[in-house]
Design a protein that fits this description.
Helix content: over 70%
Structural class: mainly alpha
Mean pLDDT: 86
Number of domains: 3
Order of helices and strands: HHHHHHHHHHHHHHHHHH
Largest sheet: none
Shape: globular
Length: 422
């Protein structure tokens, strides 16, 4: 579940706008009631947003429901209830209330379609969220129909963002804006968010077409990742190709997102043993990461390490050694998690053994073993000791290898005992 997704904020100044409009029109009864309802709506919405931020989901649910109850008294055409439905769906999802979340996402989507039309960014976003909901649910209940629903919603989102992209790039005529439902209405959350989005685009220097390309690439990335995680490589490959094409246009060829995407697609090919298309992608990802993240950044180190894995699989052990060493050096310089560095060092020790650099390999193994013992990581220590046992057997040091094997059995027994007690 993407609990990090932001709750869409309600506009805090709505009440003052309503009151000023009421005075200007000289109205008293109905508009005063609407203003009072807006006040209560904002109060409940604000409380819900705070509760969500504190991960108090039951309290957030309670207040969003209260806000929805008050929304029936708001002026016709007010868009805020649609946003509240969307927010409430996220709260349901965070609590694992999948049916309630699904129903509320559908209501929010229908409301957004009513306000903006079927080919609007908000509608596409709801499709993406619904797809994520089904993926989350499928993780707990492996029903094929849930994965089917997830794929359908990812595709629906892509279809929406494809149309937006086509309109933004002049490949399709832009749709006419829908007329407003009422002449007098408060400034809504949706409108406020759109203004913020326009300001953000201006600050980032992106054109509307580039922004549309970025959103489309993101939707395609989600479906490609969904397929790849389910080992459906054939439909994933053309999606990843399209994503990379859109990235170049959206980000102008240099951006951290491009680094992530190139590295991800390279890994996608490696999983399938397709090293030829993976190699140039890794090379491009390393070069670009050094430029946009820095040559000694953790991002660069991880890509180098993964690239080293490709070199190992291809039997280019000297290159694998070089990349592993450089990556580990960067990890250590950045005070990266000591256990993770120790686990990554196993690959370095192995590739050193493959080149008959036994003494250096032993030094790496001993350092990793010491780190994992110090930091109490039984699973990691077992994996490292297995590698070290193999190292000893290569050197025909059978007595030492037997002792290491006994240590492995001891650790496994301790882990099993602990698991049984828990």
């Amino acid at each position: 579940m993407k609990n990090s997704r932001l709750i869409l904020k309600q506009q805090p100044q709505v009440l003052s706008l309503l009151l000023s409009a009421t005075i200007a029109l000289g109205s008293s009864g109905l508009l005063a009631q609407v203003a009072w309802a807006a006040n209560k709506f904002e109060m409940y919405s604000t409380s819900a947003e705070k509760a969500y931020g504190a991960q108090d989901y039951p309290e957030a649910e309670k207040n969003f429901l209260e806000a929805l109850n008050e929304s029936g008294k708001l002026e016709k055409g007010d868009k805020r209830p649609a946003t509240t439905m969307y927010n409430l769906a996220l709260v349901y999802q965070a609590q694992g209330k999948y049916k309630e979340a699904e129903d509320m996402f559908v209501k929010a989507k229908d409301a957004f379609v009513g306000f903006y039309g079927a080919d609007h960014q908000r509608v596409g976003q709801v499709y993406l969220d619904m797809a994520d909901l089904y993926v989350q649910q499928a993780g707990e209940d492996a029903k094929p129909e849930l994965r089917t629903k997830a794929a359908e919603n990812y595709k629906n989102a892509i279809a929406v963002f494809e149309k937006i992209y086509a309109q933004a790039t002049g490949q399709a005529p832009a749709e006419e804006k829908k007329p407003e439902a009422t002449e007098l209405k408060p400034k809504t959350t949706a409108e406020g968010d759109d203004k913020k989005k326009e300001a953000k685009q201006a600050d980032s220097g992106k054109s509307p077409a580039q922004e549309a390309a970025s959103n489309l690439a993101s939707a395609i990335r989600s479906l490609a990742g969904f397929y790849a995680e389910n080992d459906e490589f054939t439909p994933a490959e053309p999606l990843y190709t399209r994503m990379l094409e859109l990235d170049d246009f959206a980000y102008g060829g240099e951006d951290k997102q491009i680094v992530k995407d190139k590295a991800q697609v390279a890994e996608f090919y490696c999983v399938q043993g397709k090293y030829k298309p993976a190699t140039p992608l890794f090379e491009q990802a390393v070069a670009l990461s050094e430029k946009v993240n820095g040559p000694e950044s953790l991002e660069t180190a991880q890509i180098l390490y993964n690239f080293g894995g490709l070199q190992y699989d291809e039997g280019t052990f000297n290159e694998a050694e070089r990349m592993f060493k450089l990556a580990i050096k960067i990890f250590e310089k950045n005070n990266h998690d000591e256990n993770d560095v120790a686990m990554k060092s196993i690959a370095l020790a192995d590739v050193l053994d493959m080149q008959s650099k036994s003494e250096e390999a032993q030094t790496v193994y001993k350092k990793s073993i010491a780190s994992l013992e110090k930091n109490d990581d039984p699973a990691g220590l077992i994996a490292c000791l297995k590698g070290y046992q193999k190292h000893l057997l290569i050197l025909n040091r059978k007595d030492e290898a037997t002792k290491v094997g006994a240590r492995i059995k001891e650790l496994k027994a301790g882990a099993n005992k602990k698991a049984a007690q828990e």
